[in-house]
Write a sequence for this structure.
């Protein structure tokens, strides 16, 4: 599967990171293998929540040793049952501090990406269906702090309303954020998975998409086919608006992602399998 991915020529691939560094060794090993064995440009996700700076320093040194040159810097989720230790010496409370630490420790060695939230960060939502304008603006300013601290690129949280993403980009530019902003695209593979993911992240789902999925939710194949069509149309709109690329959250499932990329002419039809995951 990794070889198939390499043959498609992605700009980079991501390796995720467990809360509190729970997958530290595995994540680093995967990055090293992807880079050295397959020649893939790899981006390591790195979270700082409840990770002491000495541990983060060790990870960054290993990443450098392994030839990893790109980091997605995140605050991240807390391990189950833990409280945030951001008030203690040597711990960070947010991604701004992590970005600053990486730059202080390693200069320009790493390309640093940070997360952007077109609908606002979930931490700023209360019981409203959408984030308030005041909190949305605060979130944008916080994103600018991450960029000012040394981030080179932004990848967004998933979304299903292109207009929200385009407004987010415009708002970023208006406050002086000039780095590339990659849209985070989450293929729809199953109805249950879609409902769970959008519910967890409080993603705004357009009524047309919600009704379309409701109509086919009893057939897994129809859900996938409908999802591919909807996401391909969304990606077409994004590309027409000159996004610098598409960041697909595949979750290790390749079939829908490849079909979407085929429909928008980013890969050839023979690269899109007629069957598979």
């Amino acid at each position: 599967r990794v070889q198939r991915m390499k043959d498609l020529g992605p700009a980079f691939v991501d390796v995720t990171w467990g809360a509190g560094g729970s997958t530290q060794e595995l994540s680093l090993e995967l990055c090293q293998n992807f880079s050295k064995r397959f020649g893939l440009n790899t981006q390591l996700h790195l979270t700082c929540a409840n990770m002491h700076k000495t541990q983060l320093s060790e990870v960054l040194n290993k990443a450098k040793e392994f030839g990893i040159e790109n980091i997605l810097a995140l605050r991240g989720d807390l391990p189950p049952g833990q409280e945030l230790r951001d008030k203690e010496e040597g711990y960070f409370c947010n991604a701004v501090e992590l970005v600053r630490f990486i730059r202080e420790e390693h200069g320009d060695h790493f390309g640093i990406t940070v997360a952007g939230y077109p609908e606002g960060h979930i931490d700023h939502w209360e019981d409203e269906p959408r984030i308030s304008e005041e909190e949305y603006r605060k979130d944008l300013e916080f994103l600018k702090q991450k960029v000012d601290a040394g981030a080179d690129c932004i990848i967004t949280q998933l979304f299903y309303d292109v207009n929200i993403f385009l407004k987010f980009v415009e708002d970023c530019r208006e406050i002086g954020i000039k780095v590339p902003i990659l849209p985070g695209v989450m293929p729809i593979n199953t109805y249950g998975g879609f409902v769970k993911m959008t519910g967890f992240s409080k993603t705004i789902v357009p009524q047309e998409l919600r009704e379309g999925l409701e109509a086919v939710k009893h057939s897994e194949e129809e859900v996938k086919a409908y999802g591919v069509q909807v996401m391909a149309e969304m990606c077409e709109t994004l590309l027409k608006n000159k996004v610098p690329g598409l960041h697909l959250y595949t979750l290790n499932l390749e079939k829908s992602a490849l079909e979407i990329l085929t429909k928008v002419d980013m890969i050839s039809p023979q690269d899109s399998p007629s069957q598979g995951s």
The longest strand covers residues 42-47. The radius of gyration is 19 Å.
